[in-house]
Amino acid sequence: MAEDLSGGDVTSAAVVAEDERAVAKAVAHAPLVVCGGNVFARAFYKVDPGLRVEQRLADGSRAKPGDVLWIAEGSARSILMAERTALNFAQRLSGVATLTRAFVDAIPAGSKLRITDTRKTTPGLRFLERYAVRVGGGHNHRDCLGSAVLIKDNHIVAAGGIQAAIERARSHAPHTSRIEIEVESLAQLDQALAAGAEIVMLDNFETAALKEAVDKTRGRAIVEVSGGLTLARVKELGELGVDIASVGALTHSAPAADIGLDIERIG
């Protein structure tokens, strides 16, 4: 709100009478998964606690074009001041939830595949975007660097190799933490399994190599797949027996949901 209202709202102050009242309806203009209702309402309450906001569709609901998601009523000036910030949050979070639901819906029946997010989030908005992933039916990966052990390619280089990295992680990590490591080839996978990795992240594996890796790892470690995963590949991952697909696109590339705010004057 400080970002948008640092200089007040000169347009509304000039054009709209101070005692003018209005009702504003947030309407879906495309199919979407609703998310961010409480944040949407909070934006209006921050501007004017006297406004009334009603949530017509709960977070997680599927909306079709024309559906009314939320309604704000009260001072027309206040509604106009909060409109953009409220919509920015609602469009962003509903966009993440909508994309996540598409990935989850693509999982084949009977598969154990789990769709998760990554740390590729908007700075300052991670907790909200992770919430939106859950609303869309997905799961959260580690929240921050301190929440889990995940040895990536640069850690391996800095440690002097896969075995050394895993051994050091095991000696320093809490006993409650699993050791996960990212591998980029079948040869690296062999080293990781031999060193006792509990989760292996197969990064950018093509189908043939992925199938061999899953067969080789079965019963020895949890299999996670990452690296530019698209919606079209979800079915294949599920059928191959992958446990986790971590999809950075859920948060770094989700398009904003198409939601508009239609204001009606009520005197």
CATH topology name of the largest domain: TIM Barrel
Report mean pLDDT, rounded to a whole number: 97
CATH architecture grouping of the largest domain: Alpha-Beta Barrel
Given helix and strand content, the structural type is: alpha/beta
Q: Overall 3D geometry?
A: elongated
* Biggest sheet, spatial arrangement of strands: 6-11-10-9-8-7
End-to-end separation in angstroms reads: 26 Å
Largest sheet: 6 strands, parallel
Number of strands: 12
How would you spell out the order of helices and strands? HHEEHEEEHEHEHHEHEHEHEHE
* CATH top level class name of the largest domain: Alpha Beta
Rg for CA atoms: 23 Å
Helix content: 40-55%
Give the uncertain stretches in residue-range form.
none
The percentage of residues in β strands lies in 15-25%
Question: What is the number of helices?
Answer: 11
Instruction: Give the domain tally.
Output: 2
Name a few traits of the molecule:
267 residues; alpha/beta; Aldehyde Oxidoreductase, domain 3; TIM Barrel; 6-stranded parallel sheet; 4-stranded antiparallel sheet; 11 helices; 21% strand
Structure description:
- Helix 3 packs antiparallel against helix 4 and helix 6 packs across helix 7 (162-172).
- A 6-stranded parallel β-sheet has the order 6-11-10-9-8-7. A 4-stranded antiparallel β-sheet has the order 3-5-1-12, with helices on one face. A two-stranded antiparallel sheet has the order 2-4.
- 41% of the residues lie in helices and 21% in strands.
- The protein has 2 domains: 2-104 and 255-265, Alpha-Beta Complex (Aldehyde Oxidoreductase, domain 3); 105-252, Alpha-Beta Barrel (TIM Barrel).
- The protein is elongated, with a radius of gyration of 23 Å.
- The protein has helices spanning 2-5, 10-15, 37-47, 76-105, 126-135, 153-159, 162-172, 186-194, 207-217, 234-240, 249-252; strands spanning 21-28, 32-33, 52-55, 62-63, 68-75, 114-116, 149-151, 179-183, 199-203, 222-226, 244-246, 259-265.
- The longest helix has 30 residues, at 76-105.
- The mean pLDDT is 97.
- Helix 10 (234-240) links the parallel strand 10 (222-226) and strand 11.
- It is built from 11 helices and 12 strands.
- It is an alpha/beta fold.
